[in-house]
Design brief:
Elements (H helix, E strand, L loop, with lengths): L1 E2 L1 H8 L5 H7 L4 E3 H13 L4 H7 L5 E3 L3 H15 L5 H13 L3 E3 L14 E3 L5
Parallel strand pairs: 1-4, 2-3, 4-5
Helix pairs in contact: 1-2, 1-3, 5-6
């Protein structure tokens, strides 16, 4: 399972879907780009740098973002741009494509994205 930044933030902030993320975290991976995205959000919230690194050591593997991922970026741009997905979102999606894994997100807009070979799972909202 590839984690989107929004899924990790849902876990860290105990938001809706946190239990779903907690259930997969030990077997999950995340793009280095999206790890940096989470680190930035934590810094924006005032968390000290040393604490950010400890917080991010929650049990997922960090995957590099390299040439294979970059090569796919343009191929999914059209399918994702119309749904308002950001560069970070696309980085997560191409990481999932390259590694042939499903992706887990809290971002509801992703449910409408259709890219061949990509399985997107959106966190459930609390009842």
């Amino acid at each position: 399972m590839i984690l989107d930044a929004s899924a990790v933030l849902a876990l860290l902030n105990n938001e809706p879907g946190a239990e779903e993320v907690r259930a997969v975290i030990g077997n999950a991976e995340m793009s280095a780009v999206n790890v940096a995205e989470v680190a930035g959000k934590l810094a924006d919230a005032g968390m000290p740098d040393a604490h950010i690194m400890r917080t991010l050591a929650i049990g997922f593997d960090t995957l590099p973002f390299g040439e294979d991922e970059i090569a796919l970026m343009s191929s999914i741009r059209k399918a994702t741009k119309k749904h308002g997905l950001s560069l970070g979102d696309r980085c997560c999606l191409v990481t999932a494509l390259v590694h042939k894994r499903p992706v887990l997100t809290a971002d509801r807009a992703w449910a409408n994205v259709k890219v061949r070979g990509l399985r997107i799972e959106v966190l459930k909202e609390r009842d």
